[in-house]
Specification:
The chain is α+β, with helices and mostly antiparallel strands. Helix content is 35%, strand content 13%. It has five helices and four strands. The chain has a four-stranded mixed beta sheet, with helices on one face. The radius of gyration is 20 Å and the shape is flat.
Amino acid sequence: MKKIYVNPKVPSFMDSKDINDRSESHLAKWFNRAYIRTQDFGEDNYQEYSERMAYTQEEDYQGEYKLDTEEEFNTRRVEDEKKWREWWPDNGIRYDVRILDGGAWDRTTNKGNYKTLEEAMEVAKDLMSGPTFMDKFNDSLVSL
């Protein structure tokens, strides 16, 4: 059984490159290899939020979004973090299972978000019981 990586260092193009443009060595390492990426609530502050949402304040903005005041932002962050921690009870960590399996033409496929590492590991193990890239490559060869 292959090891299941948790927060592996993946190539920068892992979720942005056509699967057909990836090298054979890359596919041999990553195709049908599930891995787990952890996600916490994350840091954010009012200045970063304001900069990120600055486009909503421009004259040509067509949407209805209203930029929060700093007080509204901070109140919302507290409420959002509380909800996040209720939904992801393992110290506020979410476990995302991803796999390069051809489910998307240019990125890994999200196979779910789990509340515990154990749940995520079980899903990852099940996913890796399928064919590897080399199995699929060999099956596509034609004998003359």
